Amino acid sequence: MKKVIIIVTILVCGTAGFLYYDWHVQTKEMAAEPKITLYSWTDENGVKHFTDTAPPQGARDVQETKGNKYVEPPLVVKIKHKSIAVYEWIISKIFKQKEKKEKRKK
C-alpha cells in the first residue's frame, strides 16, 4: 500500500511541476511581447507575397506591418477552458432533462 501511495504522490507532484513549468515559460514569453514585422510585396510577375522576412531587391509595393507574435497559451489555461466548456455542457444537459420532466408532468 505504501508503494502505491508513493507512486501516486510522485505522479501528482510530477504533473503539477510540469504544469507549473509550462505556465511559467508561456507567461514569460507572453509578457515579453515578442514583436514581429510582417512584409507584403509584389514580385516581377505581379504575385503578391506576405512574409516575415524582408523582401528581395526589386520588390514593388513593399509594406511593413508591426505586430505581436502568436504565443500559445499555457496547458493549464487550455485545461481550464476545456473544463469550463465540459461543465457548461453538463449543466445544459441537466437543465434540458429537468425541463423535459416538467413538461411531461403537465
Please tell me about this protein's structure.
The structure is a single chain. 58% of the residues lie in helices and 20% in strands. The protein has helices spanning 2-31, 75-105, and strands at 35-42, 48-51, 60-68. The radius of gyration is 26 Å and the shape is flat. It has a 3-stranded antiparallel β-sheet with strand order 2-1-3, with no helix packed on it. The protein is built from 2 helices and 3 strands, in the order αβββα. By secondary structure, it is α+β, with helices and mostly antiparallel strands. It folds into 2 domains: 1-33 and 71-106, no CATH class; 35-68, no CATH class. A hairpin with a 5-residue loop joins strand 1 and strand 2. The longest helix has 31 residues, at 75-105.
Write a short abstract of this structure.
This protein has 106 residues and is α+β, with helices and mostly antiparallel strands. It has helices spanning 2-31, 75-105; strands at residues 35-42, 48-51, 60-68. 1% of the residues are buried.
